[in-house]
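so ive been stuck on this for like two days lol. basically i have the seq below and the ligand is 2-acetamido-2-deoxy-beta-D-glucopyranose, smiles is in there too. i just want the complex predicted, nothing fancy, no docking runs or whatever. if the output looks off dont worry ill sanity check it later, just need somthing to start from for the group meeting slides
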Amino acid sequence: MELLLRLLAAHVILLALSYSFVYCYDPSPLQDFCVAANETNRVFVNGKVCKDPKSVTANDFSYSGLNIPGNTTSFMGSNVTTVNVNKIPGLNTLGVSFARLDFAREGLIPPHIHPRASEILMVTKGTLLVGFVSSNQDNNRLFSKVLRTGDVFVFPIGLIHFQMNIGRTRAVAFAGFGSQNPGTITIADAVFGSSPSIPREVLAKAFQLEANLVRFLQIVYGPALWS
Ligand SMILES: *[C@@H]1O[C@H](CO)[C@@H](O)[C@H](O)[C@H]1NC(C)=O
Ligand SMILES: *[C@@H]1O[C@H](CO)[C@@H](O)[C@H](O)[C@H]1NC(C)=O
Ligand SMILES: *[C@@H]1O[C@H](CO)[C@@H](O)[C@H](O)[C@H]1NC(C)=O
């Protein structure tokens, strides 16, 4: 009986510890706001230093220009305009941010991950095919849907997802994120375009590809092509 109680107590302590640990990457603001100060030469572990509250104005919480479409002439035919803490300093510590997504016809935001945030997206024009894939432990199931104007879809934090314009017009969507700076990892860019490159034999074996095909993909996604 005593052993059981001890185990229970240890479990509760562990739970409490893991809870506070999880909490430290999306902190409670602890005050009304902590507007990010423009200091470029510091190391920021989590968020930024706060501006003196007395010098904070409404502009620190504002951004203009999301009415303007992004330029979708890139190869993927899409463009993401992010509005995160780097554009709105007042977002610092608040755990939210925003983006506008533009798609040319057949435009694609290729499979990618936001390591720090879930995403909630609404289509305001056109038709998107969207989806995310669950983890290995959930058998990598695809959750996918066709969205039209006014439709909303959620992409859970850390899962691979994509959005593609399958309509006859351009498409527009807006998205909210549960982080001031959700981050993006585009799978193909990270895997085939890292610098330096992941050794070719690793990618050939991992993706079961001929070495020449790996070389081709490394040229397509390699940093050299875009820089
Ligand atoms: C922040 O500092 C950088 C570098 O000094 C400067 O280029 C930029 O214009 C500043 N931004 C604001 C909003 O003051
Ligand atoms: C997205 O659109 C903006 C504004 O038109 C443009 O400056 C930027 O280069 C575009 N990004 C890409 C990746 O095409
Ligand atoms: C979009 O970007 C392309 C290539 O960078 C450029 O040629 C074109 O003029 C831009 N379009 C607009 C509307 O800015």
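The helical segments are 2-23, 187-192, 200-207, 211-221, 223-226. The chain has two domains: 1-183, 189-226.
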